[in-house]
Amino acid sequence: MTTIQWFPGHMAKALRQVKENLKLVDIVLELVDARLPESSRNPQLKELLANKPSILVLTKMDLADPKQTTGWLKYYEEMGQPAVAVNSTQGSLKVIEKKIKEVLADKLAAKEAKGIMNQRIRVMCIGIPNVGKSTLLNHLVKKNVAQVGNKPGVTKSQQWLKAGSSLQLLDTPGILWPKFEDPLVGKKLALTGAIKDTLYNKDDVALYALEHFNDTNPQALMERYKLTQANLDDTTVELLLELTRKMGFKDDYDRASERLIFEIRRGKLGRYTLDFVPVSAAEVKND
Ligand SMILES: Nc1nc2c(ncn2[C@@H]2O[C@H](COP(=O)(O)OP(=O)(O)O)[C@@H](O)[C@H]2O)c(=O)[nH]1
Ligand SMILES: [Mg+2]
Q1: Which residue of 109, 169, 195, 242 is most buried, as measured by CB atoms within 10 A?
Q2: Looking at residue 91, what DSSP letter applies?
Q3: Residue nearest to atom 7 of ligand 1 (CA)
Q4: Is the CB of 267 under 6 A from ligand 1?
Q5: What's a single GO BP term from this record (predicted)?
Q6: How far, in Å, is the centroid of ligand 2 from the Cα of 129?
Q7: 45 with 163, same domain?
């Protein structure tokens, strides 16, 4: 797969916007996909967030391997990065509010000591396309949708939404594009639907997916597509060809690739995590 070049002007503008909005908030929710917490991060955000409290929100936890998610949360906490995992489509998102208060505890206590009570905490969501920003925003705001007015110094177009008893959300989430030179990261993003289908070769992504599931959950592959252990032991290209035949697509492996990708996105092969938790911090440094 060729390296995907995002339109540089686009990227720069998005970064500028995020930088401006950062001045308006107390804390940032950096949304990443629980199935690929590192690959769905924009590396430039790290610099921007250097002096701003932030929480890494692993979205779509219902699609990810629970063991891996637990491992990732532990890993981030160890690295000093507060993190939570959520399914934004259902359940309570109180875990986020709780974490926000935990991270800002000192700041809130200091204000309270000055007699400032019932403080509203200003929050913004940031993340790559399709990571679940709108879903999370809507869920946090629920029926509470309310414009709480422009703050001094806030651009007229900025609106704040009331969420829960104490949060104020910036209504426009920051959109950043994934930035990657590593083709493997591109394949992971493609497999989960984070980047446009026109930006990659389906068979490249399908071959990667087959390798991943062959390593992590061969049973799911065999059961769903009536494959044998011998098929799995063959080369990945042969495996894709056999899968194509099993799907009834004769030699149209492009069509089979598309079907496989679609089914994996829909969770038909079960829950999965594509980024593995590093064994130790040392391993990350050597990466
Ligand atoms: N299963 C699952 N799907 C989610 C979750 N959050 C978002 N989605 C789905 O992901 C897709 C993209 O979500 P959206 O909020 O539009 O992403 P945005 O581009 O970041 O605003 C939609 O189909 C959502 O229903 C989640 O936690 N679990
Ligand atoms: Mg959106």
Answers
A1: 169
A2: S
A3: 132
A4: no
A5: translation
A6: 7
A7: yes
